[in-house]
Amino acid sequence: MRPNKPLQRTALRAAAERRSVMPSSNGLKHSLRIVDTILMQRAYQEIINFIAAGPTPQRLATFQSSAESQARVAQLIHQEKTDGLYQEEKEELDHYLQIEHLMRMVKARAHHHLAHE
Question: Which residues, at least 6 apart from 4, have a Cβ–Cβ distance to it below 8 Å?
Answer without folding.
Answer: 78, 79, 82, 83
